[in-house]
Design a protein that fits this description.
heterodimer, A: mainly alpha, two-stranded antiparallel ribbon, 2% strand, B: mainly alpha
Chain lengths: 400, 251
């Protein structure tokens, strides 16, 4: 016998010495978590299950889907009509995308309110933003695959955004399309990437979890864990709590799948793509609307695209824009108000994004866009400097 | 190239400005038996609707995604479906001699299209393209009510409105001018079961049929939904109480 792990006898020790799988399992069973996590902390695991559902239903759909401009639309209808429970798979996948975004937006809102992006969780936050960016790309390309009117025209509008890049923009767009318009090569590569990116998301989620487990979860008080009294083991306490959360999530999910499967989609996407007929009103999926509103609120294309991208990239700077030593919004009386104003602003942007860009909507959209950046660049730094925070509890146990 | 796309984008923008608030009238809100969590397709009405489709709509509108065999789902017997399918000739082949030939339709065949292609359809319809009907209910906002309202909504244009030649006035259609002549009239289709065949009843029947055609698995979906929701409620309840018990001693 070679030298083996001293704490584990026999075959387990032999394996552990070469691949630390048992200490990993032990970590999972012993992982200590703050005992005061509220239901807002459920959305991480809910987003995880959302991703798993998308991948499983997606793989099954891909077995019947045909990424060719002449067959894509009908192959989706073939899934809906002739594949056993194909309608269920497809509605799960389509509604599942929206549900995944709901979970992720709730997860991000939780992080924003409780200062989960602050020291020492900056990289955890960064990885989360990467996941968000990749899932946006994945969702966009997935919406193109059924090759309906909104698929085609959405793809045309969004890929055209790259033409705003000075000098090389046009070449980039041609390169993205694989031709001189959105056509078969575009659909082919979107399908390939739509299949690839979710697995990249899984990889980044793993890193997200490694970073999470390094310093553990933040908690509603934002106070660090001081002693063992502040924590409970993840299992069984949070496993059972997560399962209850899944139950609620699945109930809402099931309601949409079975009773309003097309509510979150657009009727025009049941019309086959036609490059010669432009839909009256091109709108992206609801989860892109706030960013779409930012894009449209600026008349200049390059500046509009830059603003839209900055709206997400600005999140990377948040850990430094917010210099307050207090994490949780609970003890930040001013921040708390501005937080909710910001959320309202984001919802307003979403509404504006769904409306035609005309009249009063343009002006409201411009103010809402301005406020979005004002919040991050002015309000957050100023508030975190001058705010009188409330006294923090000495520990998590003391707070309850 | 660049100019072309800038132009397209400008066009999209203008189009969205121009059409977003077309004063299309809100469709009449009907009580359909297929609405709601327990909604079902009225088989009799759907069969009458098929007759309306066959005798009236199918002159211009295809129903590409529906096969004859699917018609058993709205209550036609296998024998009836065979007979319906055999009524038309299908171009098939090539045979062993390399020749295309005609044969009677079978239940596996799709419903025939009235036109060979879009160009032929436009040529026969004054430039307008009658859309395929397979998904029409899902492809329009508030689809069932929209189609019903459109079919029953033809009226003489108000005095101050001029309707272009070859167009008809219908306030439920975007821009109010539709190329389709009023397709239904009282007594146009005679039903074997002696059902009412005025415009209103005929429109209801065709909408019922098209609702089924747009989503043949709707009833299955809703039935499964009820069971799934009940199961999830029970499971979530159990998890809730299990959570309570596990967390009992945590302060």
């Amino acid at each position: 016998m070679e030298q083996n792990n001293k704490e584990l006898p026999g075959i387990k020790g032999w394996i552990e010495y070469r691949l630390p799988v048992f200490s990993f399992l032990q970590h999972l069973s012993e992982y200590q978590t703050p005992k005061n996590l509220s239901y807002f902390w459920n959305f991480g695991s809910i987003a995880g299950i959302g991703l798993v559902i998308q991948i499983l239903t997606g793989i099954l759909l891909a077995m019947h889907y045909d990424p060719n401009v002449d067959h894509a639309f009908n192959s989706v209808e073939n899934i809906m009509r002739n594949v056993n429970y194909g309608w269920l798979l497809r509605y799960m996948h389509a509604v599942g995308a929206s549900m995944f975004f709901v979970a992720v937006y709730a997860h991000i809102m939780r992080g924003l309110y409780y200062g989960s992006y602050k020291h020492p969780r900056e990289l955890l936050w960064f990885l989360g933003i990467f996941i968000f960016l990749i899932m946006m790309a994945t969702a966009f390309m997935g919406y193109v695959l059924p090759w309906g009117q909104m698929s085609f025209w959405g793809a045309t509008v969004i890929t055209n955004l790259f033409s705003a890049i000075p000098f090389i923009g046009e070449s980039i767009v041609t390169w993205l399309w694989g031709g001189f318009s959105v056509d078969n090569p575009t659909l082919n590569r979107f399908f390939a990437l739509h299949y690839l990116l979710p697995f990249i998301i899984v990889a980044v989620v793993m890193l997200h979890l490694v970073a999470l487990h390094k310093h553990g979860s933040n908690n509603p008080t934002g106070v660090d864990v001081k002693s063992e009294k502040d924590t409970i083991p993840f299992h069984p306490y949070y496993t059972i709590k997560d399962f209850f959360g899944f139950g609620i999530y699945f109930l809402i999910f099931a309601f949409f799948i079975f009773f309003e499967p097309n509510y979150l989609g657009h009727p025009d996407n049941y019309i086959p793509a036609n490059p010669l007929v432009t839909p009256a009103h091109i709108v992206p999926e609801w989860y892109f609307l706030p960013f779409y509103a930012i894009l449209r609120s600026i008349p200049d294309k390059l500046f509009g695209v830059t603003a839209m991208i900055s709206a997400i990239l600005i999140l990377f700077f948040l850990p430094w824009l917010d210099s307050s030593k207090v994490r949780s919004g609970r003890y930040r009386p001013m921040f708390k108000w501005f937080y909710w104003v910001f959320i309202l602003d984001a919802v307003l942007l979403g509404y504006i994004g769904s409306q035609p860009a005309e009249g009063i909507h343009v002006i409201i959209g411009q103010f809402a866009t301005l406020y979005y950046f004002f919040h991050f660049l002015i309000i957050i730094p100023v508030v975190s400097k001058f705010e009188k925070t409330l006294p923090l509890p000495s520990s998590i146990s003391e707070s309850s | 190239m660049r100019k072309l796309y800038v132009l397209i984008l400008i066009q999209i923008f203008i189009a969205s400005l121009a059409h977003a608030h077309t004063d299309r009238m809100e469709p009449k809100q009907m009580k359909w038996p297929f609405n709601g969590a327990f909604g079902t397709i009225d088989r009799e009405a759907a069969q009458r609707g098929y007759k309306v489709y066959k005798e009236v709509c199918s002159t211009c509108h295809s129903l590409n995604l529906v096969s004859y065999r699917n018609l058993t789902e709205i209550g036609f017997t296998e024998a009836e479906v065979k007979a319906l399918a055999a009524e038309h000739q299908v171009r098939d082949g090539p045979n062993d001699e390399g020749e295309m030939f005609n044969r009677p339709g079978t239940p596996a065949d799709h419903l025939p299209s009235p036109f060979a292609n879009e160009k032929a359809a436009r040529a026969a319809n004054n430039g307008a393209y009658p859309p395929d009907f397979s998904l029409i209910i899902k492809a329009r906002e508030d689809g069932a009510n929209y189609v019903y309202s459109l079919l029953t909504g033809y009226q003489t244009a108000p005095k101050n409105v001029t309707v272009p030649d070859g167009m008809y006035y219908n306030p439920y259609f975007p821009n109010h001018n539709i190329a389709m002549p009023p397709p239904l009239s009282d007594g146009l289709v005679t039903f074997d079961d002696g059902s009412a065949n005025n415009i209103d009843a005929t429109a209801r029947d065709i909408v019922t049929f098209l609702q089924w055609a747009a989503e043949p698995d709707m009833e299955k979906r809703k039935r499964m939904g009820i069971k799934t929701i009940l199961y999830l409620l029970a499971m979530t309840g159990l998890f809730y109480f299990a959570k309570k018990i596990v967390w009992k001693n945590i302060k």
